[in-house]
Predict the structure.
Amino acid sequence: MFAEVMEGLAVKADGTYLDGTFGRGGHARGVLQRLGPGGRLLVMDKDPEAIAVASALAAADARVAWRRGSFADLATWPLADAGLDGVLFDLGVSSPQLDVAERGFSFGKDGPLDMRMDPDSGESAAAWLARADEREIADVLWIHGEERQSRRIARAIVAQRGQAPLERTAQLAALIASVMPRGDSKIHPATRSFQAIRIHVNRELADLELGLDAAMARLKPGGRLAVISFHSLEDRIVKQFMARHAKAPPANRRMPVEVAFTPALRLLGGAQKAGDVELSANPRARSAVLRVAERLREAA
């Protein structure tokens, strides 16, 4: 959704922008093309391979600065202290991460059961599955994957690890498929479970909530917040966050005095989806949802 993101950010030539999910720099380079000599681009990513690309870009363009880490911590970056004219979060796993079997994100490619966006930090999916109890696993599959067979799958995982550890993506995918009821669904039986485990291992939803608050803390009046989500759990958080800061809460008849509300955001349209041309070139964009909001001036 490159064109839609660029339109949403409305890049100012002398502005300062932060791309919290650099990936391989597609959106970042689009911002750079629109910045003038006095503009600044700050980029963040957890992934060391993404940061290697960002470092090379910064070496070639003095307007770019990079920081390895989660966008949840963007407000602690001193370079953002003066305020930002735009913030972009392109959520979820990137195509390079999915395409490399060794990262362990895809059940379609056999590899180590890792799933960490930052392979140098935190607990791998294999390590978590080896220690979590059945109830915790089931809760994660249900809450983060909306998997209706969460208890059955969790029970199978605990039974299997009693015989041999789960260490490969193909091993886990086959186990899940073996206990799922056969139906006419076109998606792989392990899709929701892999999503849930990845979200849990990377603290994706917690980081998103922190990152949205951090963006609000650093956006200048008139600054734009653009977020691309890829599943309903992410999009719900983004939608509710933007609405909470843009719209007065519903009136409560039990409250004797109406509480004053000053909006901090202005919604710029509703949910945007990828067009047919993009979908034909990039089928993974079919679930992408873009939401954009503008920071309003604080009340005097």
Notes: The beta strands are 16-19, 40-45, 64-68, 84-90, 219-229, 265-267, 272-273, 289-295. The mean pLDDT is 90. The chain has two domains: 2-95+204-295, 104-201. Residues 104-201 form a domain with the DNA polymerase; domain 1 fold (CATH 1.10.150.170).
